From TrEMBL:
Pfam families: Oxidored_FMN. Residues 3-335 form the NADH:flavin oxidoreductase/NADH oxidase N-terminal domain. It comes from Sphingomonas brevis. This is Alkene reductase. PANTHER family: NADH OXIDOREDUCTASE-RELATED, NADPH DEHYDROGENASE 2-RELATED. InterPro entries: Aldolase_TIM, OxRdtase_FMN_N, Oye-like. Gene3D superfamilies: Aldolase class I.
Length: 362
């Protein structure tokens, strides 16, 4: 029976354990989105993860709507990421870049022009800008020429990720961003080849995976999905049907691993997500499945032993516990995180969470 401390292969990437660090936006890259020494230190501290999935990283100015989040569309950003990947590798870790186009949830204040999406829609709630939160603007529906350009942006970002020393990439197909805005029918109202039927709504994801896989090899590509939650106004009327077809597509394209943000118990606010779809996906997909959201080790182990998952990724606890894998292995107490410093910038709440060894010595 595989457990959390058995090795795992995700395509070309070999993991020494099955506890991954989930992608976590930390907003420390400055206005130009260039990673720096502080970020290298933060990621290197967490190199004990089976695999680090980087914070979401913009593939273009148009696609990046989070203040101080990093990018991967120019040479300065590639050079900045080189510091991060070198520091992680020096500590014996592995890291993939999460490639991000936020679609309609980018505000024009960030310099990318009118936001774009599958359809002309406006996201609910408020956009992040350097001047605080502002109402979302109506997105422009992408033309075929736009889609071709964006596929080029994905391929360039993937190439840049490899040039920057990443072990691979993860397409951000979750959480209501551009890929998700094509996938799910609460945001996609197109009546051309990209909308309507499930096969049509899958087309953009297929093309992104083909563009990125064609550029760097599909054995270095994964995708993140959030099948059973409503995020930023994006959900689907029939998640089981949609994600079963997507599982078949991922099998056909030989995508080696997927990460599912799939809450399975009531959230802190009390809302109960719909049933996990990973068991249905498993029937059609033979790649590796990484599960995420509020997992404790016993539940994660049971899912892995039951065969519906291969690994777990952990978000918030990795912020507060740089040596999380060691703490789990030794059943050690965990540091509590401070959500006020998640996106605040600077070293506090970023690189100053103590390692167990420091606490024992103190
Ligand atoms: C501060 C913060 C930043 C996040 N940034 C990202 C991100 O960049 N990309 C992404 O796909 N999910 C992001 N998420 C979601 C997490 O990856 C993860 O799905 C969520 O925290 C649930 O997992 P957990 O219960 O282990 O924390 C973020 C969550 C938090 C708390």
């Amino acid at each position: 029976m595989p457990n959390l401390f058995n090795p795992l292969k995700l395509g070309a990437i070999e993991l020494p354990n099955r506890i991954l660090m989930a992608p976590l936006t930390r907003a420390r890259a400055g206005r130009e989105g260039v990673p720096n020494d502080l970020m290298a230190r933060y990621y290197a501290q967490r190199a004990g993860a089976g695999l680090i999935i980087s914070e979401a990283t913009g593939i273009s100015r148009e696609g990046l709507g989070w203040p101080d989040a990093p990018g991967l569309w120019n040479q300065d950003q590639v050079d900045g990421w080189k510091k991060v990947t070198a520091a992680v590798h020096k500590e014996g870790g592995r890291i993939v870049a999460q490639l991000w186009h936020m679609g309609r949830v980018v505000h024009s204040d960030l310099g990318g022009g009118q936001p774009v999406s599958s359809s002309a829609t406006t996201a609910p709630d408020f956009a992040h800008t350097y001047e605080g939160k502002k109402p979302y603007e109506e997105a422009r529906a992408l033309t075929q020429a736009d889609i071709d350009r964006i596929l080029g942006d994905y391929a360039r970002a993937a190439r840049n990720a490899i040039d920057a020393g990443f072990d691979g990439v993860q397409i951000h197909g979750a959480n209501g961003y551009l890929v998700d805005q094509f996938l799910r029918d609460s945001a996609n109202f197109r009546n051309d080849d990209y909308g309507g039927s499930i096969a049509n709504r899958l087309r953009f994801a297929r093309m992104v995976l083909e563009a990125v896989g064609g550029e760097i090899g599909i054995d270095r590509v994964g995708i993140r999905l959030s099948p059973n939650i409503l995020v930023q106004g994006v959900e689907d009327s029939d998640p089981i049907a949609l994600y079963t077809e997507l599982a078949k597509l991922l099998e056909e394209l030989k995508v080696p691993w997927i990460e599912l943000r799939e809450p399975y118990k009531p959230t802190a606010s009390g809302s109960i997500p719909t049933a996990p779809v990973s068991p249905a996906m498993r029937a059609h997909y033979s790649g590796k499945i990484v599960i995420n959201s509020d997992y404790d080790w016993t539940d994660a182990r049971h899912r892995i032993e039951g065969g519906t998952a291969d690994a777990v990724s952990i978000g918030r606890l990795f912020i507060a516990n740089p040596d999380l894998v060691h703490r789990i292995a030794t059943n050690a107490p965990l540091n509590a995180g401070d959500s006020k410093t998640f996106y605040e910038g600077g070293a506090t709440g970023y690189v100053d969470y103590p390692f167990l060894t420091e606490q024992v010595a103190a």
